[in-house]
């Protein structure tokens, strides 16, 4: 099945596409913001690293402005030149593309997924080429701000989770299914808060994430919650213990907190016995979670004045110590490959995920990679669009921010388009798409 390409890749070739707008407008803005933040940190870096730091900053700024120019003038993609372990994969893949297509990819002509991922890898190259700033995260300032700006929403959510758990512990009958539905939805809508779609504009969650659920309900285009719940419960019965769950994370800030709360809910209500969070190895698509962001977030929550936040977060530290929770990083998540190529390109990760009982994939980019970033007819079955990628039962939780989606009913796309012309890209519509077995 993985051999049949049923649809063309999204690409900026199509001037009416979101890919075109992204490459023409959004990526240059993201790159300019990087240059701004680098200059803002000048004093601080000089103080910490001295002249060498200042030289490194200049070099980062130079690389970013060169990259911006390459994007805007549609230059061919060039090999990566730093010493990171993933360089051979990127450069061999580039050779592969040149062999197949006859020329190197270009920003406005090649598959969007490839060139956009490549851009973030080039941003990392700018850091890798430094002596003092190898671990410098050009997006850190923005990520931390979005976390702090979401404090009220985080407090509301964590207080609620704390109360729900206290009720459960007191022996009071709880409606497990509707609680599951609630925390799943909070995690789903947490994905509205990504800094890449907004070009780094404010995306903090300011209203109560719980009060909003009702209002957002009609915006869920595909809702496989029941199947997901049934599957998790079924695992408990067949295995004799709750599921070992993997969550492929997306963004830091409010979204990460919603994912941690969802994982906490799964553990404390016996729907999961272990959760493994998958993070990005380096700064990616502006707001994605790196190992530093993950630890930083839990430490911030732990140090909070709110007893609800600190109690839960300290419990999470304990989970991490006793391996109830684990974190994992793999370079595959910061490569450009669609997930149907995981088994051949990164067999270890595939084998690792095949041991999972259930995989949640957060966000738009993971969704794009799941369905190969292809322009599928909307009514294509979700499972078909996975093109053979099925290491375990899986569920995509995604606010729609790019022009690909599968699994809709006939006529549904027209109905939603009539209500909202930008439904595919504005993050106001979402899918909870489940796939169990390959059909
Ligand atoms: O994966 P996330 O954080 O939900 O979204 C990342 C994202 O904004 O970046 C891409 C365009 O630059 C979009 O396709 C995508 O929605
Ligand atoms: Mn993201």
Automatic annotation (TrEMBL):
Listed GO biological process terms: DNA damage response; intracellular phosphate ion homeostasis; methylation
GO molecular function, one term: fructose 6-phosphate aldolase activity
Residue intervals of the Damage-control phosphatase ARMT1-like metal-binding domain: 22-415
InterPro entries assigned: ARMT-1-like_metal-bd_sf (IPR036075), ARMT1 (IPR039763), ARMT1-like_metal-bd (IPR002791)
Enzyme Commission number(s): 2.1.1.-, 3.1.3.-
Coiled-coil blocks: none
Record has Manganese as a keyword: yes
Catalysis: reaction(s): L-glutamyl-[protein] + S-adenosyl-L-methionine = [protein]-L-glutamate 5-O-methyl ester + S-adenosyl-L-homocysteine; beta-D-fructose 6-phosphate = dihydroxyacetone + D-glyceraldehyde 3-phosphate; beta-D-fructose 1-phosphate + H2O = D-fructose + phosphate
The entry's keywords: Hydrolase, Manganese, Metal-binding, Methyltransferase, Nickel, Transferase
Cofactor(s) needed for function: Mn(2+); Ni(2+)
Keyword presence, Heme: no
GO cellular component: nucleus
SUPFAM superfamilies membership: AF1104-like
Domain notes: Subfamily III proteins have a conserved RTxK motif about 40-50 residues from the C-terminus; the threonine may be replaced by serine or cysteine.
Function summary: Metal-dependent phosphatase that shows phosphatase activity against several substrates, including fructose-1-phosphate and fructose-6-phosphate. Its preference for fructose-1-phosphate, a strong glycating agent that causes DNA damage rather than a canonical yeast metabolite, suggests a damage-control function in hexose phosphate metabolism. Has also been shown to have O-methyltransferase activity that methylates glutamate residues of target proteins to form gamma-glutamyl methyl ester residues. Possibly methylates PCNA, suggesting it is involved in the DNA damage response.
UniProt similarity note: Belongs to the damage-control phosphatase family. Sugar phosphate phosphatase III subfamily.
The protein's name: Sugar phosphate phosphatase
């Amino acid at each position: 099945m993985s051999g049949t390409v049923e649809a063309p890749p999204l690409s900026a070739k199509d001037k009416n596409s979101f890919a075109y707008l992204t490459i023409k407008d959004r990526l240059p803005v993201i790159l300019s913001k990087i240059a701004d933040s680098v200059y803002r940190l000048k004093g601080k870096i000089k103080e910490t690293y001295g002249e060498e730091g200042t030289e490194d900053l200049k070099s980062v700024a130079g690389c970013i402005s060169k990259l911006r120019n390459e994007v805007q003038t549609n230059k061919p993609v060039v090999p990566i030149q730093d010493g990171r372990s993933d360089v051979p994969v990127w450069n061999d893949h580039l050779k592969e593309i040149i062999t197949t297509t006859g020329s190197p990819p270009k920003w406005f002509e090649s598959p969007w997924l490839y060139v956009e991922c490549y851009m973030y890898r080039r941003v990392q190259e700018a850091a890798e080429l430094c002596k003092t700033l190898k671990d410098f995260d050009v997006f850190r300032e923005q990520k931390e701000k979005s976390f702090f700006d979401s404090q009220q929403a985080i407090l509301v959510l964590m207080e609620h989770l704390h109360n729900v758990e206290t009720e459960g512990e007191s022996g009071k009958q709880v409606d497990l299914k509707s609680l599951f539905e609630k925390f799943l939805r909070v995690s789903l809508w947490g994905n509205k808060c990504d800094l890449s779609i907004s070009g780094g504009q404010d995306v903090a969650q300011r209203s109560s994430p719980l009060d909003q659920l009702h209002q957002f309900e009609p915006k869920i285009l595909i809702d496989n919650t029941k199947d997901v719940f049934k599957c998790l419960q079924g695992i408990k019965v067949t295995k004799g213990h709750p599921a070992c769950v993997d969550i492929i994370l997306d963004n830091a800030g409010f979204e990460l907190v919603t994912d941690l709360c969802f994982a906490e809910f799964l553990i404390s209500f016996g729907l999961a016995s272990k959760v493994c969070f998958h993070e990005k190895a380096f700064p990616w698509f502006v707001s994605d979670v790196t190992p530093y962001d993950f630890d930083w977030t839990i430490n911030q929550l732990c140090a909070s004045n709110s007893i609800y936040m600190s109690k839960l977060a300290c419990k999470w530290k304990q989970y991490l110590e006793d391996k109830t929770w684990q974190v994992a990083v793999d370079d595959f998540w910061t490569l450009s490959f669609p997930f149907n190529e995981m088994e051949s390109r990164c067999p270890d990760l595939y084998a690792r995920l095949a041991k999972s009982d259930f995989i949640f994939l957060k966000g738009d980019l993971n969704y794009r990679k799941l369905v190969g970033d292809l322009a599928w007819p909307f009514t294509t079955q979700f499972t078909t669009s996975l093109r053979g990628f099925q290491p375990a039962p899986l569920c995509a939780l995604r606010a729609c921010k790019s022009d690909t989606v599968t699994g809709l009913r006939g006529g549904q796309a027209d109905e939603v388009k009539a209500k909202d012309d930008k439904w595919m890209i504005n993050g106001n519509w979402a899918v909870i798409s489940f796939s169990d077995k390959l059909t």
